[in-house]
Every structure is written in C-alpha cells, then in structure tokens.
Request: fold
Amino acid sequence: MPHKTPPSILVALFIGLLLVAACRQPVRKDLDYDYQVVQSWQVDEVFGGEFQQFETVPWNAEATQTVRELIKKDELVSQRTVLEIQTGTGLLAIYSSQQGASKVVATDGNPAAVACARYNAASLYQDRIVSVRLGSNDPAQPYAGIKPDESFDRILILADVDLEESDRTARLVALLDGLENHLTRAGSCLICCTQKSTIEELQKLAKNGELPFKLLGDTNLEEASEVLWPGVVVDIRRSNTKNGSPNPK
Reply:
C-alpha cells in the first residue's frame, strides 16, 4: 500500500535525495530535473526507495493495486516483455521490472510524466530494464511512441481515469484494434477499469472483434457498483480466428 510523505518535509527530502545521489554518482544528463516534486510516496511492495510525483503527473497507486497483486501472485510478467501505456509516475512499469520482466517500455503523452517515470526508474535502479518514451495525449493514439512492428507479451493500461465517455471509447477501440500488431500471439492485454461501464463496453467491443475476454479476480459484475476501487482487471487477447491460428490459453 502507498504511504504519503508529509508535505512539510518534501523540499528537504528531495534536496537530500539529490545530495545522496550526487555522492554516489554524477548527475545524470539524460534525466530532467526541472519539474517540481509535489509528493513523495513509499509503496510497500516496491523495494529500493520512494517514488517522486512531479507536477501535473497523477498518482494512481490505489487504482492499480489489483494489477500489482495479480502480477505478483500469478507471475504475469516474469521473463516477458511489457508495454505500459500512460505510465504516469512509472509505478506499474517499475514494479513489472522488479517482478522479473525481461523488457519494459512505458509511454505517456505528458512530458512531465515521461521525466518523472525516467527519474523514478533511475532512482530505483530499474532503468536498464525500463525505458520511457513520449506518447500522445490523444485517447485514439494509445500506441504513439511504439514502432509499427513492435510487439509485447503484456500490455498494461489504466483505461478510464479522468476521461470523458467519448474519449474512453476512442481509447478502448484503438487499444483493441492495435492488439493484432502490438500483442504477441500468446500475449495478453491487462486493462485496469475503475468503472463498471468500462468493463461492459469492453465486453461488447471484444465480442464484436472476436477477442477472448476474461474478468480477473472475484468481482461479481452484476452486483458491482459503477465505481470500482481499486480497479478491476480485464484480460483481453488476440482473436482466436484471425491469421488461422488459435489463441493460446
């Protein structure tokens, strides 16, 4: 679970972190130190230090708690390549690296988030596995920053926080449309949903596209409220029928 550092000591803490880092190694020229740190967070299941949250970058640890639990319990990313879309502070990307992912690419359309995730990956010693790229804030461009022929074993995304319904639909449609090119044949797209209506929309889209759909965990969707907190995870895979190849279970 995440723990919040009191704001009164944030400035001193951040200066201290920079001083400690400076004593251990030269200042990294590939990192951006120009953004204000608005909060520091300790996440129990992530070892090596605290996460820094830069200005304008959301902190979604509670929303993605279920994803992290599943990643560890079911070893979902061990020895696999991972793409995280809209990474924010880099929490899921860095956690995936610590849980044994062989390669992690994280994207975000916010330059501050890119700087933040890169800083956190470096400070937590995961930047040999985790690379962060600038994506797009356009919901209809979830794969911005990814090469046309680049594919991954796992795709992670928090699908519906702070999005209007039309933008959410655009993101989900584009996300599923891109699985054929960006998800490996045996791979899975793990979509974290904080709204019941998001899951219902995904069910319809998956059915229309003949994509295998599975609700992970023990949530009873019929009895669930509209707000799901922490988020519920949906596993969607490539079509069983396209390219004449069955989708592995």
DSSP finds seven helices and ten strands in the chain. The two ends are 31 Å apart (CA to CA). The longest strand covers residues 183-195.
